[in-house]
Amino acid sequence: MTGLRNYSLYLAWLVSLVAVGGSLYFSEYAGYIPCQLCWIQRIFMYPLVLILGIASYREDRSVIPYALSMSLLGGSVSLYHYLHQMVPGLASLAPCREGVPCNTAYIDWLGFITIPLLALAAFTLISVLLFLERKRVE
């Protein structure tokens, strides 16, 4: 576990980089138009690539509280979005009134893996890695 803690800031940056690459792949290459909740998740994920990348390069742990709060908020939106897709009763509460409906699942791997679940996994992994890094610094 100590070895993972030594590289947790760098690994969090790599996870954010893969997540942004995945979202760009789905929207630009696969042609999936993001819904409003997807855009909100992107608002939280895209800056993490820059923040965590610069922090990793400079070995600056002072950004952890900011990156962690962005990751937790983005993860909350992802969780809501995933529940919105999986629980039909939440469809009436959705903020997606125009454009692409938020309960549309462009991908459905193994019957439960959707894009919001992939985003939730990325936000969760980033949060865990940042918590580990925070504990290492304390």
From TrEMBL:
Parts of the chain that traverse the membrane: 7-27, 39-57, 64-83, 109-132
Membrane topology, from the record: Multi-pass membrane protein
Pfam families per the UniProt record, alphabetical: DsbB (PF02600)
Naturally occurring in which organism (per UniProt): Salinithrix halophila
HAMAP family linked: BdbC
Cross-referenced InterPro entries: DiS_bond_form_DsbB/BdbC, Disulphide_bond_form_BdbC, DsbB-like_sf
Keyword line: Chaperone, Disulfide bond, Electron transport, Membrane, Oxidoreductase, Redox-active center, Transmembrane, Transmembrane helix, Transport
PANTHER family registered for this protein in UniProt: DISULFIDE FORMATION PROTEIN-RELATED (PTHR43469), SPBETA PROPHAGE-DERIVED DISULFIDE BOND FORMATION PROTEIN B (PTHR43469:SF1)
Protein name: Disulfide oxidoreductase
Subcellular location: Membrane
Statement: the UniProt record of this protein carries the keyword Disulfide bond: yes
Family of the protein in this entry: Belongs to the DsbB family. BdbC subfamily.
NCBIfam families: PRK03113.1
